[in-house]
Amino acid sequence: MIKISQILTQAKYLAANPDETVASLGSEHGNFSQTYKLVINGQYYALKSYSAWTPRSKIQRKLGLAHLEKNVGGLAYRLRYPEVSESGSENVKLETTVLKNWKEAQIKAPIIIAKDKNNLLLSFIEGESYEQIVQTGQYSRMHQDSLIKKIRQIRSHAYKTRNSYQLHNDLVLPNMMFDGHEAIPIDPALPFKKELGFETLDASFNLVFAYTLISPMYGYGSSTHETFDYILKGFLQTLDVSTITQMEELNTPANRFEIVYLKTTNALFGMNPIYSDFIEIFSPSQCRRIETELKKRVRKQESQFLKL
Ligand SMILES: Nc1ncnc2c1ncn2[C@@H]1O[C@H](COP(=O)(O)OP(=O)(O)OP(=O)(O)O)[C@@H](O)[C@H]1O
Ligand SMILES: [Mg+2]
């Protein structure tokens, strides 16, 4: 067993002396952790380090997160800040629990090699994130089938025991990778409100995912339009009507004025645009698109039911 203290010393050295053996893997949207690609004894690993995180701006964090915590597009499932500690220890605990549950269920995901309070050393997944695949225009039917198949697999395992810690609590395109064969879930580290029931959490996760599927921030654009209408429908078709109905109830858009306010304060104070970009995902127009598809999905199910 590799000792994390040894790894961390090595990781620190590598991060301070960048060469081809260390690369920052952090997604553009990541705020709370840094992920590095490391080579140890000729083998690649991903080091996810929460201790490296420092808020870019406390004020902005407050402004941005206040919006994220509202009941917008299913986001209200997230544990309220500052209930989540900034040290990342809760994220590490949560990610550990879910990754272990997936391993037990034989769902391929990163394996935990070593960990401490704020760091996780994970097996390295060779491949790209779905966000990269979408943004570079590579997205194909094969990627879509794999994505939908994997989400179904995760959910059907979780439904057997109704265990919220088996679901993907941060289901967004950058947190699904493709290894050339199948979709691999990563980063299930978003603390959620424990008082919420399994079905509500599941509906919330799926609703946020539906938004990320048609979000320009994650690569959706005019060139991918057809595919993405298709993938949104394809994804929604895998959900049963009770989940869809709950998603409809949770589906509230971000307030247009708040989006503008956040954008303006970003510009004024030179703050990180991450928050306003993220909130934009849940704009009233995107909300209407999702609502339309959810309604169609219910109607389709009802008409099938009547035909029986
Ligand atoms: N085990 C892994 N193998 C290969 N690449 C990985 C692995 N884990 C993460 N990555 C890459 O690093 C990126 C960021 O990792 P991850 O999603 O875990 O953290 P994050 O989203 O930046 O963190 P946070 O949401 O806490 O701010 C991923 O999108 C993926 O491209
Ligand atoms: Mg991530």
Strand order of the largest sheet: 1-2-3-5-4
Kindly estimate the percentage of residues that lie in beta strands according to DSSP. 5-15%
- Our Rg estimate from Cα atoms comes to 19 Å
Overall structural domain count: 2
Intertermini distance? 58 Å
Which residues form runs of ≥5 with pLDDT under 50?
none
Estimate the mean pLDDT confidence: 84
Share of residues in helices: 40-55%
Compute the number of strand runs: 8
The distinct ligands, each listed once, are: adenosine-5'-triphosphate, magnesium ion
H/E element string?
HEEEHHEEEHHEEHHHHHH
Reported for the largest beta sheet, the result is: 5 strands, antiparallel
Supply the helix-strand structural class. alpha+beta
What is the 3D form?
globular
H/I helix tally: 11
Q: Could you explain how this protein is built, in words?
A:
This protein has eleven helices and eight strands. With 308 residues, it is α+β, with helices and mostly antiparallel strands. The strands form two sheets. The protein has a five-stranded antiparallel beta sheet, sandwiched between helices. A hairpin with a 2-residue loop joins strand 2 (34-40) and strand 3. Helix 2 (58-68) runs antiparallel to helix 9. It is globular. The protein binds adenosine-5'-triphosphate (ATP) and magnesium ion. Residues 25-27, 30-33, 35, 46, 48, 110, 122, 124-125, 129, 174-175, 186-187, 189 line the site of adenosine-5'-triphosphate (ATP). The site of adenosine-5'-triphosphate (ATP) has 20 residues, from strand 3.
